[in-house]
Design brief:
By secondary structure, the chain is α+β, with helices and mostly antiparallel strands. Helix content is 30%, strand content 21%.
Length: 155
């Protein structure tokens, strides 16, 4: 049984419109990352997960939903402005292991950073090692801009 109540599902769907490519795009509200988010009882949830669990069922443990519409659209550069992140069409979603989702994203030709601002070239790419041993790549200019903004704001 899905954990989402009908009203939360309806909140997502009342903001959704069909797109010519078959995506069911939600206009708002969006996370900074570009994914649809809804808040209820002090917690936030991604729209595509709400719709999947309401229409299909629980996502298998250890799996994540991959937007297959994004994988098929080689013209999309990804990042927060990617329209596919707003897609809640369950026919465009597939539960996969997180490593599969990441590998599919990494196969794409990503010429810009995740924010779509800076060229994704060697001098702009930094790497950090996470506690679990994974190496994460990030955009150096974006990271510096974030640090400057936080310092200016006194954070």
């Amino acid at each position: 049984m899905p954990k989402w109540n009908t009203s939360l599902y309806e909140r997502v769907m009342e903001r959704a419109e069909w797109h010519e490519n078959g995506c069911l795009l939600v206009s708002s509200p969006l996370q900074q990352s570009g994914y649809v988010q809804l808040r209820t009882k002090g917690k936030q949830y991604k729209g595509h997960i709400i719709v999947w669990e309401h229409e299909v069922g629980t996502i298998p443990e250890g799996m994540t939903l991959d937007h297959m519409c994004h994988n098929a659209d080689l013209s999309c550069s990804g990042g927060p402005k990617c329209l596919h992140r707003r897609c809640v069409n369950v026919k465009h979603l597939e539960p996969v292991l997180p490593a599969v989702n990441t590998s599919r994203a990494n196969r794409r030709d990503q010429s810009k950073c995740g924010k779509g601002i800076h060229d994704w070239v060697e001098e702009n790419i930094g790497e950090s090692r996470k506690a679990d041993g994974r190496i994460m790549r990030y955009c150096r200019p974006c990271q510096h801009a974030t640090k400057r903004a936080k310092k200016k704001a006194g954070i």
